[in-house]
Specification:
- With about 170 residues, the protein is α+β, with helices and mostly antiparallel strands.
- It has helices spanning about 5-15, 60-70, 135-145; strands at about 20-30, 35-40, 45, 50, 75-85, 90, 95-110, 120-125, 150-155.
- The strands form two sheets. Strands 1, 4, 5, 6, 7 and 9 form a six-stranded mixed β-sheet that branches.
- The radius of gyration is 16 Å and the shape is globular.
- The protein starts with a helix and ends in a 16-residue tail after the last strand.
Length: about 170
C-alpha cells in the first residue's frame, strides 16, 4: 500500500513509534447490489477499498478519491456505517500505526471496475452471497452497510458487545 508523503515526513521525526491516524473504508454497491472489492498487492488478499485521508481532507471525500484511485469506479457516499478505533498494527519495517476507521456505504455512479494503481492486483464486483475469502474487518463492514441499523460504534462501555455480534454500540 502506498504511504502518503505526509506520513513519510512524520516518520522522519517519529521513527517507528505509534502513529494515531485516520482511515476510511468504502463499501461500494452497484445497481445490482454487488459489492466492489480489491485484491491488495501487499497482502495478496481480497479487501474492501480504503485509505488514509490527506491532511485537511474530509473523510467522505477521501473515500470517493480512494475508490476512484484504486478501481476507476466513481461513487457517491450515502451514509456512515461504522466508526471504530482499530488495534495497533506493526508493519514489516517496524513502523507502528493505529487507525480510527470511518466506514462509508457508497453507491457506484460511473466508471468500469479495473486495477487503477499499484495497490491492487485485481478489482471486481461480487454478489454479497458469493464473496471471496475476506477477513472479519471486511465482512463486518459489508454486513453493516447492508443493514438499516444505525451507525455502529463501540460505546466504550466494558459491557458492550463484540462488533461481530451486534449492529450498534
Amino acid at each position: 500500500m502506498a504511504t502518503p508523503e505526509f506520513i513519510h515526513t512524520l516518520r522522519a521525526c517519529a521513527g517507528h513509534q505509534l502513529l494515531w491516524l485516520p482511515g476510511v473504508s468504502a463499501i461500494v454497491f452497484d445497481d445490482e447490489g454487488r459489492v466492489l472489492l480489491g485484491r491488495r498487492s501487499d497482502t495478496r488478499r481480497w479487501s474492501v477499498i480504503g485509505g488514509i485521508p490527506d491532511p485537511g481532507e474530509q473523510p467522505a471525500a477521501c473515500a470517493v478519491r480512494e475508490v476512484y484511485e484504486e478501481t476507476a469506479v466513481r461513487c457517491v457516499v450515502e451514509r456512515v456505517v461504522l466508526v471504530q478505533a482499530l488495534d495497533p498494527v506493526t508493519y514489516d519495517n517496524g513502523d507502528v500505526c493505529q487507525f480510527m476507521d470511518i466506514t462509508f456505504r457508497c453507491r457506484a455512479v460511473g466508471g468500469e471496475a479495473r486495477v487503477n494503481d499499484d495497490e491492487s492486483l485485481e478489482v471486481g464486483w461480487f454478489e454479497v452471497d458469493a464473496l471471496p475469502e475476506l477477513n472479519e474487518f471486511g465482512l463486518f463492514r459489508i454486513k453493516q452497510a447492508l443493514s438499516d441499523a444505525p451507525t455502529w460504534f463501540d460505546s466504550g462501555d466494558p459491557g458492550s458487545m463484540d462488533p461481530a455480534s451486534t449492529t450498534s454500540g
